[in-house]
Design the sequence.
């Protein structure tokens, strides 16, 4: 394969970018072929509100991690090296391990590696695209382009709906789902809040909900599931909406056999990611994937494509420790640390988002983001607060640890976790931190 050359300044000046919450996308051509260039800014988003905070160095750390994980997924040798211990850290059911190891999906991975849209990391100094293991770090990556077909927001019987009919007819497309693979139930997870909400209505409904994750109640924060479990939420709607398996199948626009292969592929890919981060002394709790499908005659073992970002913001990583002031606790090494920061230091602003989501579901209502940003413009809601510099700098160093993966100093995680606890203690918010992150 002939790799493209990236003249970033020229692309910036000649291409209208598509600015997302976690990346800036540019489309460019090289020798007659169209590519996508993704720049990871140091800015980030939480609570579906868009870009509102900045972590210095996080863009370079995120795209470098993205390249390292994609390199693993695409390399057949990495699948050959995946041993039983890697599977056993994600599955307690030996039968499920054996089923995955004997599946046609795993056989394809061992022979060919995973199919992805990733091409390589861009060396900013030269514009060269680098593939495979490399010492280069960069906030730029190049990838293949897949069509993005958004559902149309319509009104039926006075209520807002999303029409997926045009999307479902396409044979090559970015799948309109977020695919979430859960290894456990971390604190702050929607899994806990959804379970508790159901339990207040009907314990039998709450029990049925947990059964879909292969576990039983009562559900406790920071408890591992018996095996990896997959669920889905919407990707192209106003805010993330969790789906039943039936709804996910209908929105995905694929058949049940393909969705089953999606489940196997994402479980296996999550085993790989867990193996990558485990050497840092951090624990992986859940991971969000995105896929494209090509159902226009591609061979069956190559019709599912892993796409988009795979980085700190798409996974939930944490470190357990015992602290003299708060006892056994968890410190987050992903965006959950920022979510907790906002819940602790900006409680009123965070609470207002629930009100806005309720308003967006009323008949004839605008979308969640439109209500939010129009309300900010009109003075009805405050501007989203940023991060204090000291806290942002600490998050940047946590990002770097995760990016290092197997090359990381395992003791660094403990040192950074203690620094975060000290941050809350010095500001008189240690009790709030303990309430979110203490282990029972």
Sequence:
């Amino acid at each position: 394969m002939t790799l493209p050359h990236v003249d970033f300044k020229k692309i910036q000046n000649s291409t209208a970018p598509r600015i997302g919450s976690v990346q800036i996308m540019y489309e460019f051509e090289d020798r007659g072929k169209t590519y996508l260039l993704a720049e990871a800014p140091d800015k980030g988003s939480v609570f579906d509100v868009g870009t509102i905070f900045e972590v210095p160095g996080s863009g370079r750390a995120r795209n470098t991690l993205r390249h390292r994980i994609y390199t693993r997924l695409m390399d057949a040798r990495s699948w050959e090296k995946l041993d039983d211990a890697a599977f056993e850290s994600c599955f307690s059911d030996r039968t499920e391990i054996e089923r995955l190891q004997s599946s046609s999906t795993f056989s394809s991975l061992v022979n060919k590696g995973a199919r992805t849209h990733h091409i390589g990391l861009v060396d900013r100094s030269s514009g060269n695209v680098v593939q495979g293991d490399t010492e280069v770090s960069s906030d730029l990556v190049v990838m293949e382009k897949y069509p993005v077909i958004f559902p149309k927001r319509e009104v039926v019987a006075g209520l807002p709906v999303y029409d997926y009919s045009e999307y479902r007819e396409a044979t090559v497309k970015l799948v309109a789902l977020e695919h979430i693979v859960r290894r456990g139930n971390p604190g702050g997870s929607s899994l806990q809040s959804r379970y508790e909400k159901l339990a207040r209505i009907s314990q039998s409904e709450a029990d049925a909900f947990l059964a879909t994750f292969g576990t039983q109640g009562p559900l406790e924060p920071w408890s591992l599931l018996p095996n990896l479990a997959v669920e889905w939420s919407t990707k192209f709607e106003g805010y993330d909406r969790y789906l039943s398996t039936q709804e996910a199948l209908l929105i995905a626009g694929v058949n049940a056999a393909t969705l089953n292969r999606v489940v196997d592929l994402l479980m296996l890919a999550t085993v790989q990611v867990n193996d990558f981060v485990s050497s840092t002394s951090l624990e992986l709790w859940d991971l969000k994937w995105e896929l494209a499908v090509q159902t226009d005659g591609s061979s069956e073992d190559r019709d599912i494509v892993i796409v988009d970002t795979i980085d700190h913001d798409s996974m939930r990583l944490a470190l357990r420790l015992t602290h003299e002031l708060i006892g056994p606790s968890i410190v987050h090494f992903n965006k959950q640390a920022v979510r907790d920061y906002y819940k602790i230091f900006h409680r009123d602003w965070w609470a207002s988002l629930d009100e806005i989501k309720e308003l967006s579901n009323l008949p004839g209502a605008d979308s969640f983001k439109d209500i939010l940003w129009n309300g900010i413009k009109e003075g009805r809601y405050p501007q989203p607060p940023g991060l204090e510099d000291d806290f942002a700098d600490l998050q940047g160093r946590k990002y770097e640890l995760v990016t290092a993966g197997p090359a990381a100093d395992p003791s660094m995680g403990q040192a950074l976790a203690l620094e975060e606890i000290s941050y809350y203690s010095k500001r008189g918010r240690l009790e709030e931190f303990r309430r979110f992150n203490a282990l029972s």
